[in-house]
Amino acid sequence: MSIKIPFLSKQPKETDSLSGENVPNHVAIIMDGNGRWAQKRGLPRFAGHKEGVSTVNKIVKAAVKSNVKVLTLYTFSTENWKRPKQEVEYILKLPKEFLHVYLPSLMENNVRIQTIGDFQALPSHTQEAVSYAIEKTKNNDGLILNFAINYGSRHEILKAVKQIATELKEERMDIDSLDEEIFSKHLYTNSVSDPDLLIRTGGECRLSNFMLWQLAYTEFWFTEKLWPEFTEETFYEALLAYQQRKRRYGGI
Ligand code: FPP
Question: What is the pTM of this model?
């Protein structure tokens, strides 16, 4: 399989086509820049989030096409509750709107929905819409579309530590058996491998409390493009950059 990148800013070369080999298994994305996209156009911030939803649809399709197995999208962080109430309410309605429009196409594309984060603390309408989609797509065995929603990595790590401490106290775990693999099993991400590639849009170069444990050996790719401007081509550009990297995991 060879995926041609339709356009690149530089002159296309022979190497500027994606190879079907060495496709990242798990791509995680920090979707940043919705607010700025709207403000640049004199629109309210929520218009940027709305536009961001159609980008999600495009990138899910591109991920399916490129044979990525897991796509994790940072949709709402534990810190995003600090935003004005109206914006929080708007963002938390988006999963329902997205699923209302796109669930048939997700089914057609054999996509399975999952989430990571503190699900129980979400409004009931968000929980219901997402739970319905999780149930509906549970037998699909294509791309796992993993929404990080009400997710914060420090919260996740602390939760894991508390669970482990309880298991030790109740003598359900032996301290000598605790290793990285067992620790990972206590994280929200216990059913998926660590991300191979992290993409952050919107020009900021930080992690914003996202998958701190899981990103230990992940390749990072940053772009100035704001999330609503992010296209399939930009996604392929990131995959291509990944394919041209050498991962050494601390070795030589
Ligand atoms: C960060 O941009 C974006 C968010 C906090 C919300 C992300 C949500 C979406 C992209 C839509 C969700 C889609 C689905 C399918 C549920 P920002 O608002 O921080 O942008 P700024 O840095 O320009 O202010």
Answer: 0.94
Domain range enclosing 123: 23-142+227-242
Pocket test for ligand 1, best of 34, 122, 127 (most atoms within 8 A of CB): 34
Express each pLDDT in 126-140 by its tens digit.
Answer: 999 999 999 999 999
Of residues 20 and 235, more confidently modeled = 235
Task: Please tell me the total count of domains within the chain.
Answer: 2
Q: What is the mean pLDDT of residues 44-62?
A: 98
Quick one: CA dihedral 81, 82, 86, 91, positive or negative? negative
Token pair listed for 149: 């929603």
CATH number of the domain enclosing 67: 3.40.1180.10
Going by their DSSP bridges, the two strands 70-77 and 144-151 should be labelled as parallel
- Is 144 in a helix, a strand, or coil? strand
Cβ of 133 less than 6 Å from ligand 1:
no
Indicate which residue of 80, 146, 150, 196 is catalytic.
80
